[in-house]
Design brief:
With 159 residues, the protein is mainly alpha-helical. Helix content is 93%, strand content 0%.
Amino acid sequence: RALDACVMLIARKEGLANETRQRQVAIRERELLYYTKNCRMLGDLAALVAGFAYSGIRYHYLLERQTSFRAGEGDALAEMVFLSLLTACMGLGLQTVLIAMLVAMLGPSLALRGPDGSLADAVAGMQGYTKVMLATFMAALGLLLLSALTSRCGLSRMR
C-alpha cells in the first residue's frame, strides 16, 4: 500500500513537471511572436526614416538644380553637415532594416529547426537584438531631427 502511494506521488510529480514544461513552452512561443512582431514594426519604421533621409538629400539636390542655389563660403560647412547627417541617418535606418529582417527570419527558424532548448535561445537572442535595433533606430531618428535643425539654420541664413 505504501509502495502504491509512492508510485502515485511520483506519477503526479512527473505529470505536474510535464504540465509546467508545456506552459513554459507556450509562454516562450508568445515571446517569440512578440519579438518577431516588434522586429517587423521597427524595420518598417526604420525604412520610413531612411526614406525621409533620402528624400531630404534628393530635395537638396533638386533645390540646387532648379533655383541655381549655391552655398556661399559660410554656408558650405552647414551644407556639408546637413548632407552628412542625412547620409548617416539613412545608413543607420537601412542597418536597422537589415537587422530587423534577419532577426525576424532567423529567430523563428532557429526556434523551429534547432535542437532541444533552441526556443529559449532564439527568444534570448531576439531580445538582445531588439535592444540593438531600438538603439540604431533611435540614433537614426535623432540624426534626422538634427539634420532638420541644420537645414532650418541654413535656410534662415539664406534670407
